Amino acid sequence: MGTRLIMRATILWFPFILLTCSLHAQNLTETVRGTVIDKDSRQPLFGVNIMVLNTDPPMGAITEANGSFKIEKVTVGRHTLRFSYVGYEEAVIAELFVSSGKEVQVTVEMQEKVNTINEVVVTGNKDKSKANNEFASVSARSFSAEEMSRYAATQNDPARVVQSFAGVMTAGDDNNQIVVRGNSPRGLLWRMEGIEIPNPNHFAGSEGSTGGGVSILSANVLTNTDFYSGAFPAEYGDALSGVFDLNLRKGNTDKYEFTFQAGILGLEAALEGPFSKNYNGSYLINYRYSTLQLLGYMGLKIAGDVLPKYQDIAFNFNFPTKKIGTFTVWGIGGLSSLGQNAVHDTTKWHDINDKTEYSQNQMIGVIGTTHLFMFKDTKTYLKTVISYSYTNNQDTNDTLSNSYAPFNLGGDKFIYKTLRATVMLNKKLNSKNLLRAGVIFSNTAYQLFSNSYSYQYNAMQTQVNNIGNTSMLEGYLQWKHRFNERLQLNAGMHFTYSVFNDKFYAEPRLGGDWKATETQTLSFGLGLHSRIDAMSTYFSYADTTKGVKKYPNQNLDFSRAFHAVLGYNFSFKKDFRLKVEAYAQYLFNVPIGADSANSTYSIVNYTDGFVNVPLVSKGTGYNYGLEITLEKFFSDHYFFMYTASLYESKYRALDGVWRSTAYDVHYVMNLLGGKEFVLGKKKNNIFGINLKLIWRGGERYTPVDLVASTIANETIYQNSNAFSQKFPDYFRVDAGIYYRRNTKKYSWTLSFDGQNVINRQNVEDEIYDPVSRTVIIEKNLGIIPVFAWKIEFGLPPR
User: Fold this and answer.
1) Start-to-end CA span in the chain (Å)
2) Mean of the per-residue pLDDT values of the chain
3) Is pLDDT at 123 greater than 90 in this prediction?
4) Listed range (21-25, 371-375, 708-712) with the worst mean pLDDT
5) How many CB atoms lie within 10 A of CB 54?
6) Could you give the CA distance from residue 796 to residue 798 in angstroms, rounded to a whole number?
7) Does a cis peptide bond (omega within 30 degrees of 0) precede residue 308?
8) How many CB atoms neighbour CB 409 within 10 A?
9) Which residues contact 647 (CB under 8 A, 6 or more apart)?
10) Who is most buried in 11, 492, 581, 675, counting CB within 10 A?
11) How many angstroms separate the CA atoms of 571 and 518, rounded?
12) Looking at 658-783, which runs of residues are DSSP E strands?
């Protein structure tokens, strides 16, 4: 009922807002500022000519000695900026959005020409088949904070953004766990400011999880993000399926700016600005608090019977110096909890969920410091990052009646404290050659506990109870050689040594691209990759008949994989492109069940969760497929993207049989787009609509053994038929509308984002219910409305 009321209110409000647009039109302007640097050496470029195209009179600027520029009184709306510099390829930022109340800040990287005689001109949008990382050749994509808000139903969440990319899908409907090319989400790596961070999501599964219900990261604090779906460059280790490489933006160094947002998902506030008049340092702070609990008390249960609560903070303090480089202090933190209350009226008990109470509490904190030192006149820089992270995940299960179980069903408590440090040296030898080398050290202290009630044995069982610490050392070396403006090669090696299991891995990486014509590029990537599992997996144990604990998993290897990718990119028209990638992956040393009772078990089929099965590193698997992306970048007030993935994902466990993985859905298709309409006599305001369609094959599942489940009084699967069945195809429609109003001193945006607006309840799982003694079907969520209002404003420049 509450959902329908919100949708009706939204539909009624938007026409009213449009009709109340200001009749007193005025020329609104704002400042565009930024920095221009050399792409390879990160050195600032002095004297770069910047032009704002199609303005009357012409507008522009020239960069100062530190690479900075400032263009004042740019008309509100979308503009294209062109950057030109002697000896460098021309760069263009297309459709840069300028709004009142908040200055626009950009960082532009320019590529030095190999042969200054040949003229190379870049037109249209930045090629998003390329990542920000100079060593990426294939399976990489960058996206901006603005794109995070442009895609329908993404909730400004980077993990939900990439679910529209080719080769990517979600492992569930109410979370952002992502499956990349048929791989388990457990293989995903998150990095921030060049160093690994723990899973940055609220309501995450406790162990091995790389996603959750709501991202801790707000679009307000992020700058351009890189996402990799395979064949990663050599500097990325401890990743098997994909990589998120995030960076925090710096606060405004000249003006105090503020952002406030209120909506269904919570309250959010951000502030940024300079520390003082005479210093170029800045701060950026963003805080969010969930209002879902308040709505739940009002009867509007967006998350069903569960009442989620969360709050988070992110900050970035920037301290430049004149002689010893730039220091930054940054961090993120989050608290989240959710619980499901049992039905106290016993006459309304229909299944075991009605009498079960569940609670989950999570805490994450990361604080880091980064030092960037530029060696003068040597085209060399040194980057050092030190971070400390803390995660604490706990959950408990209880029942109101012991008719089918005792009151306490068990719980988990997993605490990790990790100190990490990385040092990276980047040396640009000349316009053709770039070298990069680095070392990464991590030390993790852990406290692990898990127990649960066994219906089969009618007793509580402890699966893990361990305290300790371990370390890992990584190193890498990379070399990029540009034969000319059309051909380049990237080669590297990543090294990993694990103190815990005394394992050493050397992983070669190779990639390159050839620009066959001005519009067509061929690329390739090859490499070995590996990832360690959650520490609880290695320390799970079982009690023998003599009461002696056995630790069968302590000698497990890392899961490993070989990636091979071949890509083709065709920019057949301005702002249009067709991208095709074919890939093959071979997985080995995969943990699988070590005995006949678990002969079909493989860790590749699980998104997260504590693993207490005896394992051996003898599993294999493979993924291969074809991905197609047809895209029009945002220009002329609209964009669209169509992605299609055709693939196969198989695994082999102890019984030697090749089976489909849980994510072998065979096909995934996404169609999304958006259109903006400029309103007002002076074209100061914007009304926009966004739409996204998702269609994919149904997920695989293992059928329930009804007879065995009835005897055991819990769900027992037919493991001999593991993942032999498929749910119906998954189909979902997301939509969003927004209105942005610009005034002289501030701007505000009213938006409505709807996930699953057609209210299709896709099948999620099937389980055995011990109360009704039948197999029941669980379904995904229906409509999820997200309504928000945001205002941005600033104080006059100093």
Assistant:
1) 50
2) 88
3) no
4) 21-25
5) 9
6) 6
7) no
8) 18
9) 167, 181, 182, 623, 624, 625, 626, 666, 667
10) 581
11) 8
12) 658-660, 667-679, 685-696, 700-701, 725-726, 730-742, 746-755, 763-769, 774-779
Q: Residue 301: what pLDDT?
A: 59
Those residues whose C-beta lies under 8 Å from the C-beta of residue 257, and which sit 6 or more positions away, are 101, 102, 103, 251, 271, 272, 273, 792, 793, 794, 795
Q: How far apart are CA 357 and CA 339, in angstroms?
A: 7
Q: What is the pLDDT at residue 302? A: 54
Residue 19 has pLDDT above 50, yes or no: no
Tokens of 573: 């028209």
> Dihedral angle at the C-alpha atoms of 127, 131, 137, 140, nearest 10 degrees?
-100
Average pLDDT over residues 687-707: 94
User: pLDDT by residue (tens digit) across 294-338?
Assistant: 566 655 555 556 678 899 999 999 999 999 999 999 999 999 988
359 burial level (CB within 10 Å; 0-12, 13-18, 19+) = middle
Beta-ladder partners of 685: 679
Residues 6+ apart with CB under 8 A from 711: none
Q: How far is 769 from 199, CA to CA, in rounded Å?
A: 32
Answer whether 0.85 is exceeded by the pTM: yes
What is the Cα–Cα distance from 12 to 262, expressed in whole angstroms? 19
The lowest-confidence range among 53-57, 244-248, 300-304, 750-754 is 300-304
Residue 691 has which token pair?
């739409």
**Chain segment 745-775, per-residue pLDDT in tens:** 899 999 999 889 999 989 888 888 877 888 8
pLDDT of residue 54: 81
Q: Whose CA is closest to 587, among 660, 492, 657, 652?
A: 652
β-bridge mates for residue 71, sequence order? 32
* Burial state string for 707-745 with b = 16 or more CB within 10 A and e = fewer than 16: eebeebbbbbbebeebbeebbeebebbbbbbbbbbbbee
Look-up: residue for tokens 């699980």? 606
